[in-house]
Amino acid sequence: MGLYLAAYLVALVVSFALTPLVTRLAHARRYVDAPGTRKVHDVPIPRIGGVAIILALLAGAAVAFVLVPAAAAVLRGWRTQILAVIAASALIGVVGLADDIRSMRARTKLVAQLAAAGAVCLLGVRVDVLAADGLGVLHLGVFGWLLTIVWIVGVTNAVNFVDGLDGLAGGISAIAATALGLFAIRTGQPAVVALTLALLGSLTGFLAFNLNPARIFMGDCGSMFVGFCLASLGVLCAKGASNIVAMAVLALALGIPIFDTLFSMLRRFLERRSVFSPDRNHLHHRLLDYGLEHRHAVLVIYGATLGATGLGMFLMVTRGAATIVVFCCVCVLLVLLFRVVGSVRLSESVGRLRRNFAIAREAKEQQKVFEHAQLRIREAHDFDNWWLAVCAAAQDMGLSRLMLKRIDGGGPGSEILWRNSVELSRRRIISTTVPIILGDDAQPPLQAEVDVPVDVSLEAAALRVKLFSRLIDENSPAALPLAGTVLGGSVLKVNEIPPGGPPQVVC
Fold first, then answer.
1. How does DSSP assign 55-91, residue by residue?
2. Where do the structural domains in the chain lie, given as residue ranges?
3. Residue 113: which of 88, 135, 133, 84 has the closest Cα?
């Protein structure tokens, strides 16, 4: 107990002492988070509080594993794994600090997280088997590497994404560290207990300055470090017996950020945006939109986290199918919370999914039509055949009207008009003009006026306009003879395509 108490108290004191110093440094160097649309603060707040958390954990771990003589026996056999977790977590914290000081691309941070997770796997911090009382043992082999990397990177980003309100990420992580420490105590893993208590102490000291109204944020430096450290400690704890339970307990303790991240990624996928793009539909944003005050929203999420964690602790005394039932029931309760506040809407998600499938199907069909039209239009050896091929393409693409104009500076000019013989909806129409470059300044310029009905969506109709414009642009009639063609005179010409028949020019 002296080992555990030393790790916690040293980390707590160092974090509490360093955080004000880091705050002053951030103000002096202007490492602050400015107010914005997605922000909930009105004044610039320092955002490198993670530095104090990292240094405090390192101090607690050093005292526990270096300065306490009794810790030598605890460290024996865990040295490589413990150093791997600490070093990789600190590296991720440095990457987050670089992002706090000078913004980095999301992909760059993801690559760093994957590399760090791969490194700890290489050094033995990985899940090789899945086992639980009454459920048997499953050897994962190479899939253990994949599961470990996905777990570590996923939890790292989940904690990072939930860091949206004062004290939110820190409080949830403190609860998760406590749950993981209790499980490690029960399963006899003192090294994991010491590290989780050092992490808990660093978070406790920091929260004194991070609770609403916050005087400092942990930033990506802190959230990524804490998430990576928790995930890695969960894997380290899972190397003992009943490792499924170790992962499940931590997953439920971090259920709010994990589900929030999954639903956010799903929402962005359905909206066809980058999964790393920001939005304002996280759980804490929805609670604020419901009218809750800042502190009350945080307390609600704290309560939900404590409830999920408390129920998850029953996993330590269940066996067999009961373990799966308890885990699934708690997950359902968490999903219901997101459903109540409107972070996930099943009917809306299904509607977006159907719309996306319709747009994708339309795009695939239009691409086939475009490629076929390209082959046909390239075979045209004079302007008349070129016009016939263009009309056929307009028919296949579902255009409602196509007018080709020759614009004479001093004369009346000429026009050719094609209308689709199939009756199309006219309630919504996209109209555009496509210039046709002939490459000869002596020739009067041509332009095509195009009408496209909006059937599936505006985006699908715009895709038809884009493909038709590309067809005209890439297959200009510049090299084709114009004399004696349908544009030879100034009389209005009309071209119509009978149903099922080829286009015909009517002079």
1. HHHHHHHHIIIII-TTHHHHHTTTHHHHHHHHHHHHH
2. 2-242, 353-506
3. 88
Q: What does the alpha-carbon distance between residue 41 and residue 34 come to, in Å, rounded to a whole number?
A: 8
How far is Cα 43 from Cα 499, in angstroms, rounded to an integer? 67
Tell me the mean pLDDT in the region 395-413. 74
Q: E strands of 341-492, at which residues?
A: 401-406, 414-419, 429-436, 446-453
Whether the Cβ atoms of residue 72 and residue 55 lie closer than 8 Å to each other: no
Q: Is the peptide bond before 435 cis (omega within 30 degrees of 0)?
A: no
User: Phi/psi of residue 437, each to 5°?
Assistant: -90, 125
Question: pLDDT tens for residues 84-109?
Answer: 999 999 999 999 999 999 888 888 99
pLDDT band (50, 70, 90) for residue 53: very high
Radius of gyration of the chain measured on its C-alpha atoms: 32
User: Average pLDDT of the chain?
Assistant: 83
Across the strands, what pairs with 139? 129
Q: How far is CA 483 from CA 443, 487, 489, in A?
A: 11, 8, 10
What sign does the CA torsion over 393, 397, 402, 408 have? negative
Asked whether the beta carbons of 476 and 440 are under 8 A apart, the reply is: no
10 Å CB burial of residue 155 (0-12, 13-18, 19+) is: buried
pLDDT, tens digit, for every residue of 472-488? Answer: 888 877 766 654 455 54
- In this predicted model, what pLDDT tens digit does every residue of 231-261 receive, in sequence order? 999 998 887 655 788 888 999 999 999 999 9
Label residue 103 exposed, middle or buried (CB < 10 Å: 0-12, 13-18, 19+). exposed
Closest to 460 measured CA to CA, from 386, 395, 377, 399: 399
Q: How far apart are CA 376 and CA 503, in angstroms?
A: 13
User: Distance between CA 160 and CA 162 in Å, rounded?
Assistant: 6
CATH for 353-506, options being 3.40.30, 3.30.70, 3.30.450, 1.10.20? 3.30.450
- pLDDT single digits (tens) 272-295: 887 777 777 788 888 888 888 889
**Residues with Cβ < 8 Å from 497, sequence gap 6 or more?**
391, 392, 395, 418, 420, 421, 503, 504
pLDDT one-digit tens code per residue, 355-371: 888 888 888 999 999 99
Query: Nearest 5°: phi and psi at 132?
Result: -160, 150
